[in-house]
Amino acid sequence: MVRLGGGTFWMGSDRFYPEEMPKRRVKVAPFWIDQAPVTNAEFERFVEATGYVTLAETPPESSLYPGIKPEMIVAGSAVFKRCNTLDLDDPMRWWHFVAGANWRHPLGPESSTEGLEDHPVVHISYQDAEAYAAWAEKALPTEAEWEYAARGGLDGADFAWGDELAPGGAMLANYWQGLFPIANQLLDGWERTSPVRSFPGNGYELFDMIGNVWEWTADLWDAPPRRVSGRRCCTMPAQNGGHLPRKVLKGGSHLCAPNYCQRYRPAARHPETVDTSTSHIGFRCVVRHLTG
Length: 292
Known about the structure:
This protein is an alpha+beta fold. The chain contains three helices and eleven strands; from the N terminus they run E-E-E-E-H-E-E-H-H-E-E-E-E-E. 43% of the residues are buried.
């Protein structure tokens, strides 16, 4: 973990999506934060120690999802698959519920995490992230803590490394280069997740704060409808009718693209229902009570 001294910083942005507005001064107390997202290897140690079963490994309760189709009452999770469409209004063209997909089997039952031990764990719901944090004697970051950490001391910059997405053509995070969801040029070298620390750390020596996987925060989504962008996001649309709480995701993912979801920025935020798990959502933890 890395200790951050806290302080006051400019949170949000007036330059991109309305839910990030207004840009305002926010103060955070000192805290420690994981240097990188929780990896498959780290999550496996937690499961081996506790026997924990994730939400994606558990068939849903039909009572929580009125009208759910019987064939959907199986354990599984949402997996991204490329598709040949220029219609960006229907994310279900590239998001697919896959029975048997979970953190152990990120693309479905025939896949595994062998060789992906140092990649961020995915298919993690909010309660899964909370359970890991409690076991590790940590907590999930607030949105303000997360954004303060992601900025790396560059107060008010558009990106975690400055105001240019790819300065001099350098790929500084794992995001989608090309026409989403059809063609990924792979200029960053990765089709899906990448090993943590594959890209330079920010000014606080924190890694993968931008791109790779979205990360859960502890904050409830609070943006009023008039301040929410109509622009679609690369996250999975809510499927539960809106009756479950939504938490704030931060950081964007390997699916964020210049033509579709420009949320590979510290100020970017997105609401996600707490029961959602996908092939591009993970997390990291904080500690607030340690000194030194």
